[in-house]
Amino acid sequence: MAEIQPHAASLPRSESKIYNMDVENKGEEEKNDEKDYTQRAQWLRAAVLGANDGLLSTASLMMGIGAVNKDVKTMILTGIVGLVAGACSMAIGEFVSVFSQYDIEFSQMKRQGNTSQKDKLPNPYYAAFASAVAFAVGALVPLLGAAFVKDYKVRLGVVVGVVSVALFGFGLLSGFLGKAPLVKSSFRVLIGGWLAMSLTFGLTKLVNHVGV
């Protein structure tokens, strides 16, 4: 049989007070758990988006240089430059953004006289490190895909293939974290990635053809 919860009004005053306190504490714990879960989901989503950015921007750079140069070393060096530059850019941008948020929230705490909650504020150093690592992880996918293939056409195909699989996976994960339709989210990310790589490849080839 299901357990019947007593109503506060049917209890003696002392027991009713304890019962209400238990209910309030339980509600507060649920709110804190929900807040912690939301924060973790936001960080994970940011990491997924950072990895997706590293994957797509590095792959597009490699496809762009591959449109005008068939040398594998040149393509790999281009990818490495994209990885380093992108990771540094992501780290600095996230550091400045989160530090600004930190200053605003800490100032609000000082006005309220509640600086004991300082440890719950976002950490700009952690955010910068996490963004740089996420970007670098994504950028490694096309680099590893191209590193061991000498044939030019096969190399381009491998890069497109591994990037497509990774984009589809990131789309699934993003859709799951955002509680969006998984297949639709995945194909949206995948088609966007194909478009970015195609435009970079085609426009670079066009610029090289006209001799600009």
Automatic annotation (TrEMBL):
Annotated GO CC locations: vacuolar membrane
InterPro entries reported for this sequence: Ccc1_fam
Name the record gives this protein: Vacuolar iron transporter
Catalytic activity reported: Fe(2+)(in) = Fe(2+)(out)
Annotated membrane topology: Multi-pass membrane protein
Biased composition (Basic and acidic residues): 23-36
Pfam family, one: VIT1
Superkingdom, taxonomy of origin: Eukaryota
GO term, biological process aspect, one: intracellular manganese ion homeostasis
Provenance organism: Vicia faba
A molecular function GO annotation: iron ion transmembrane transporter activity
Family named by the database record: Belongs to the CCC1 family.
Major location (coarse): membrane
Entry's transmembrane regions: 80-104, 125-148, 154-177, 189-207
Region annotation Disordered: where it falls in the sequence: 1-36
Keywords: Ion transport, Iron, Iron transport, Membrane, Transmembrane, Transmembrane helix, Transport, Vacuole
Keyword Cytoplasm attributed: no
Protein function: Vacuolar Fe(2+) uptake transporter.
Annotated localization: Vacuole membrane
